[in-house]
Design a protein that fits this description.
This protein is of the alpha+beta class. The protein has helices at about 5-55, 180-185, 330-335, 345-355, and strands spanning about 60-65, 70, 105-110, 115-120, 125, 135-140, 150, 165-170, 170-175, 190, 200, 210, 215-220, 235-240, 250-255, 270-280, 285-295, 295-300, 310-315, 315-325. The protein contains four helices and 20 strands.
């Protein structure tokens, strides 16, 4: 039996239409199911993040699977071209919180001694000048337990319990601290930069530097050796002089391997050498020696001249002394004889200049 003409083509067309309809329906169902699953996973994960962290989640979030990047727009809707979504999303939240317990505390500043510290609003500070060396008391007003913090104008904490030494640029203080709040007060202790704005002298021969006040002057001198001197005359001397030229600081520095002397004077006056203050140069502690005569300090050295030994730091020998200047007139001699160098304001400047020394590597 023969098929009617034209039946097969018509049947083929019908079959193609049916298959196409089934494919379209399946694709629609697949896409709806995928979108439903994707929205469920994403919404669930984001909800957990917000619940656990209360963090703000960026509105532009990228979720990545092995092969496909899917971007959520600012409205929270998925792009319609989604094919596969990886439900594993990593969210990192910074849970660290920094708090400054000293925020809002008062600040005490001592321009006289060159430091500052913070203390709680419930405490008071009391400036003192006691024979024990205490210059500041910090504690609760009327407390039977005494002060929480004591600041000593000393360079050594020998015999002072629960104490810490703070040193910088020729200044040293011992701080006694007992209790948690006292430790917090100690953590706020800072030195003031009392040389800020000063000029800087740079030695052309060795490259060492020192800072000095703007109204002081600096001169260099190179002298020959006089065999009749008790001590060798300096061959390298830098002199810092105050504005009225009453006081001066003489400095001699040379490498240990260099020949010649740097002792910055040609004799020692009458008197007794007494161990004085300590100056910190970087991390090196340097002792000063006072030459006392008639109960007054007439000269101050950074070494003990009676031993004729130079002070050494790094690869250098460093000698310095502070005096009343050149005794050129009777008036000058009289003034110097009546001056106690260890208590005049220029003495503080002298120590700051010494403490500012920076040596080359």
């Amino acid at each position: 039996m023969k098929n009617p003409k034209g039946f097969l083509p018509i049947a083929a067309i019908i079959i193609i239409i049916v298959v196409a309809a089934l494919a379209a329906g399946g694709s629609y169902y697949y896409t709806k199911t995928l979108n439903k699953n994707t929205n469920t996973v994403l919404n669930t994960n984001i909800a957990v993040v917000n619940e656990n962290t209360n963090a703000v989640v960026n509105t532009n979030t990228t979720v990545v699977n092995g092969n496909t990047n899917v971007t959520m727009n600012s409205n929270g809707n998925l792009n319609t071209n989604t094919v596969v979504v990886n439900s594993n999303t990593n969210v990192v939240v910074n849970s660290n919180t920094n708090s400054d317990v000293t925020a809002g505390w008062k600040t005490y500043t001592s321009t006289k001694y060159g430091f500052s510290l913070k203390y709680p609003l419930t405490m008071r500070v009391l400036e003192v000048n006691e024979t024990s060396g205490i210059i500041l008391r910090v504690g609760v007003e009327g407390s039977a337990n005494g002060d929480n913090v004591l600041v000593y104008n000393k360079s050594s904490n020998a015999g002072i319990p629960y104490s810490t030494v703070k040193s910088e640029s020729g200044k040293s203080f011992v701080i006694s601290h007992v209790g948690v709040e006292a430790d917090q007060i100690l953590s706020t202790f800072v030195f003031l930069d009392q040389t800020a704005g000063w000029k800087t002298y740079t030695n052309s021969e060795y490259g060492w530097t020192m800072k000095y006040p703007n109204d002081w002057t600096v001169n260099n001198s190179y002298q020959t050796t006089d065999p009749n001197d008790i001590f060798e005359t300096p061959i390298r001397t830098t002199t810092f002089t105050n504005p009225n030229k009453y006081y001066r600081l003489l400095v001699g520095i040379k490498k240990k391997t260099d020949s010649g002397s740097i002792v910055p004077r040609t004799g020692i006056g009458a008197g007794e050498f007494i161990k004085g203050d300590t100056v910190l140069i970087g991390s090196t502690s340097m002792t000063l020696w006072n030459l006392n005569y008639n109960n007054l300090t007439s000269e101050i050295f950074n070494y003990n001249p009676s031993t004729n030994s130079n002070f050494e730091i790094s690869n250098f020998q460093f000698i310095a002394y502070f005096d009343c200047g050149t005794a050129a007139t009777i008036e000058t001699i009289k003034r110097c004889d009546q001056t106690n160098l260890s208590v005049i304001p220029e003495y503080k400047t002298f120590k700051l200049i010494l403490g500012s020394l920076v040596l080359p590597n």
